[in-house]
Amino acid sequence: MQYRQLGNSGLRVSCFALGTAPFGASDGGAQTGRVDVPSARRQLDMALGTGVNLVDTADAYATGGSETVLGQVLEGRRDRVVLATKVRLPTGAGPNDAGSSRQHIVKSCESSLRRLQTDHIDLYQLHEWDGQTPLEETLSALGTLVRSGKVRYVGCSNFAGWQVMKALGAGQTDRLPSFVSNQVYLSLLERSAEYDIVPTALDQGLGLLIWSPLAGGLLSGKFRRGQPGPPGSRHSGGWPEPPVYNRERMYDIIELLCETGAAHGVSAAQVALAWLVGRPGVTSVVVGARTEAQLADNLAAAALELSVEERDRLETASRPPLIYPYWHQCWYAKDRLSKADLSLIGPHLRAPERSDP
Q1: Same domain, 186 and 333
Q2: Residues 181 and 155 sit within 8 Å (Cβ to Cβ)
Q3: Could you tell me the residue range of the domain that residue 166 belongs to?
Q4: Phi and psi for 122 in degrees, rounded to 5?
Q5: Would you call the peptide bond into 22 cis, given omega within 30 degrees of 0 as the criterion?
Q6: CA distance 264 to 268
Q7: Phi and psi of 173, rounded to 5°?
Q8: Where are the beta strands (DSSP E) in the chain?
Q9: How many domains does the chain have?
Q10: 23-32 per-position pLDDT tens digit
Q11: pLDDT value of position 231
């Protein structure tokens, strides 16, 4: 297992993280899976045994049930884990039971600490953007939690690049906590984060934590062209997240994953994960599973090494087209591009879609 610095912080986290969205789900809301306490304990055992030290949850998962189960299975080994949770999404029906206000953040942190049975949270993340609460209020509330020792580091999730920059600017102006990470969706099926979010993270020194790296299971190799999806899977049941915009292209990518996996004697899922963990700016890939067998297979991707040719084939099959202003920069600004710029534009320079004028 590799360990990487989390953004500009001194914290080191494993390149794969245990995701716990399926923990604690009841029969009434379990499209991401149902993992009870004994199963959760076995998953944590497995993750720790392979070197995973980052465990990610959220107060909104299973209406707090994920944190509750995780708190129980962490007993006696809390100090082996970098514990990450999130705040922002609704936790009740009241007008102040959502958002990034001081009221909601402080109250939610106290509740998360109780459920997790711990005295501090290592990484406290804003789960989503709040365009109505002043950032100064949000960051000040996070600062209060950091100074009290209840939170060690702060991050965000699902923030666009400009939103990250606005938050970092507000923090610098008032000497408030700065984000060390942004947890976002990125996969071979959907690489839109590479337009703006990835370059921002590289430029500003934020770590990128990746959720749903297999596109909700679509890249597991179990969904094939012309075949029904596996029974009981969330996409077979109409689960809309993440969205699929081009199913034929999706199946082309899946076929390539299956072909590459067969060459290595591993699953398509392992190939997709191994490709992703090697992408620019990616610090850790969050893997969650319904079963221990799925988790074991996903974590085995840490040992898979893809050749340059294999990575290039996957890159070509999934590469997003350059949108404006990036195609213009590709043509006219290529003499002065930074590492952050090249994370998106670099592959297009090597295989241009248009000849220079």
Answers
A1: no
A2: yes
A3: 3-312
A4: -75, -40
A5: no
A6: 10
A7: -65, -45
A8: 3-5, 12-14, 16-19, 54-56, 82-87, 121-126, 151-157, 179-185, 207-211, 282-287
A9: 2
A10: 997 654 445 5
A11: 64
pLDDT, residue 28, reads 45
Could you count the other beta carbons within 10 Å of the beta carbon of residue 36?
12
- Same domain, yes or no: 94 and 147: yes
* Region for residue 124 given its phi and psi (left: phi exceeds 0; alpha: psi -120 to 50; beta: otherwise): beta
pTM listed for this prediction: 0.94
* Domain co-membership, 116 together with 258: yes
305 plus 325 within the same structural domain: no
Give the residue from 232, 160, 230, 233 showing the smallest Cα distance to 197: 160
CATH number at residue 280: 3.20.20.100
Specify the pLDDT at position 39.
96
Do 140 and 161 belong to one domain?
Answer: yes
DSSP bridge pairs for 211: 185
User: How many other C-beta atoms are found inside a 10 Å radius of the C-beta of residue 320?
Assistant: 15
Annotation marks residue 195 as catalytic: no
Residue ranges for the chain with pLDDT beneath 70: 26-33, 231-239, 351-357
Which structure tokens are listed for 42?
């076995």
What integer pLDDT is reported at residue 140 of this predicted model?
97
Q: Angle 161-174/135-147 helices, nearest 10 degrees?
A: 60
Please indicate, yes or no, whether residues 275 and 349 belong to a single structural domain of this protein: no
State how far the alpha carbon of 60 is from the alpha carbons of 90, 105, 149, 216, in Å. 7, 13, 23, 18
* Cα(352)–Cα(111) distance, integer angstroms: 52
- Please identify which of the residues 3, 61, 124, 195 carries the catalytic annotation: 61
Give Cα 276 distance to the centre of its chain. Answer: 11
Residues in the chain: 357
Measured CA to CA, the distance from residue 217 to residue 222 in angstroms comes to 8
CA-to-CA distance for 168 and 124, rounded, in angstroms? Answer: 16
Q: Token pair for residue 170? A: 């507000």
| Residue owning tokens 């509750």 | 68
**pLDDT digits 0-9 by tens, 241-263:** 789 999 999 999 999 999 999 99
For residues 199 and 166, state if they share a domain.
yes
For residues 260 and 285, membership in a common domain is answered with: yes
